[in-house]
Write a structure and sequence with these properties.
The protein is α+β, with helices and mostly antiparallel strands. Helix content is 17%, strand content 32%. Bound molecules: manganese (II) ion.
Length: 230
Amino acid sequence: MAEDWVFAPPERPSIAVEGSSARFPVRRVFCVGRNYAEHAREMGGDPGREPPFVFMKPPDAAFDAALGVPYPPDTVDLHHEIELVVALGQGGVDVAPTRALDLVFGYAAGVDLTRRDQQARAKAAGRPWDWAKGFDRSAPMSPIRPVARTGHPATGRIRLSVNGAVRQDGDLAAMIWSVPELIAFVSRSMELRPGDLVMTGTPAGVGPLMRGDRVEGGIEGVGDLHFAVT
Ligand code: MN
């Protein structure tokens, strides 16, 4: 019956966990903007060390990249942004940077897919970015690799290629705000909960994706992702 869904426990979107049959249930997706100086410049910004800014994608944005990425509706300028994804296994409020890494369950490589044309129109009109950033399947990810295997990566190559051509090639060490600083920052405004993901910003080289493109990306020590745009 149509009413049954009201009483059924909601199915949480989830991401594969490397080396396990368990899946990581996604609660929320926090995304950090302009956290690499070269990317801030390519987007027309000034990469001073001003406070980070955060936007959100709904949980339904997150999915296993291996499933393939459908080209989304309502855009002719879909962009890729490869990012380190932090998966939280514990929550907290007002978390000190020195304790922030205790919350981390693991890390993944993810892509903050962006309808850049919509984002440009929203920026020009002073409107929210949600429609440009938070569409269905806008955050394909590699399997989450637990901390026991990754440690807490603060350096390492982060790269993305399209049809074999390198588009983005940076290093986690170039992040303006570190992972513990970002966790602490978010936890001062929102109560973090298990299942929350933090996408930590992208290095320079963002660019368009077309139907049929083959995307290959990864982060040293964290994981790789491959998908086709269908
Ligand atoms: Mn991004």
